[in-house]
Amino acid sequence: MSILRSQVVGCGSYLPARIVTNAELAARVDTSDEWIVQRTGIRQRHIAADDEPTSVVGLKAAQAAITDAGIDPSEIDLIIVATATPDHTFPATATQIQAALGINGGAAFDMQAVCSGFVFALATADKFLTTGGARAALVIGAETFSRILDWEDRATWARALEGASAAYVSFQPDIAVPGGVETVSAFFAQAVAAGCGRLVLLSGRGEIEAEAAEAALAGSGAEWTVLRASWFNQNFDESFFLEPILEGGLALPAGTAAEPFVDVEDIAEVAARVLIEPGYEGGLYELTGPRALTFAEATAEIAKVVGRSIAYVPVPAEAYRAGMAQAGLPAEVIELTLYLFTTVLDGRNTPVCEGVRQVLGRPPTDFATYAARVAATGVWGEPDASR
Fold it and tell me: Which domains does the chain have, with CATH numbers?
């Protein structure tokens, strides 16, 4: 009695050209490279182009695998595509790939099991092969999750909310931008209508617009929690302060007001806690660091741990506006930046708050601790050997 066994005879892969690094992601939402790497191992992700739906991504990987196996596509009589982001509910993405490969016979279907989808698809193909149900199987894992949610395309919201019972809402670049409050308010309403009854909002301290968004959340009918955060520590190593720090000087229209910078690691831990554990419904938590620093003081602390000189230069707001305009930045970006540096950063947010301790039962991360941690990665460059 012969025993049928399956064998992997070829492998292939495909990655879209566009790359989004953790640093780019952190510039838009409250996260950091370190937080993402520690929890997922991911340092960058590839984003499919507009003309690259899941079927195209899967097809290109399939073609590479078929070439590696040295077989003709006509030999394949089973195609299974593991995906949670198919082109359509029907026809199956697998049938589209089957047609693109010129295969006219055999079975083709999709399998949806998200992270474990490819494993299930491989096991299913093995059962077909070892029971004589198929002679040659093509198993594909392909996803285009970047298509699921786009703040500017409300048609994508329903899919992102499908099956969700709770959501963490972070609007980028800032709720204070024109239309920000209206957008998140519409999202709250759609989330509740979709059965997502638990919403946690990342808000900003001292922003009238953020307070309007908080009021919309409170009136949405959902169980809600608000996290009001100070300026992020990570602006200095993963966002728009990094380049000038590397160049040796940070010039800002920040004045002399102190800010209790908060670590996004703390924000992430607080957000996870209030999102999945009971007892935080209807709460407003102000998340700050343990002490307030001026931008000059924060820059000096970075210079100290890096071991080289980094200047801080205060710049008048109008001079900063002219510089941004000369650099070709959009008018809305210029206005938002100046609003945050002048109106919001006028001392109203200097007081330290206990939100991190209230949720986590520990003090927030000190700026010096953050600076030492980041300096050890080398992202701010090497120390000055002459000092």
Answer: 52-146 (3.40.47.10), 154-375 (3.40.50.720)
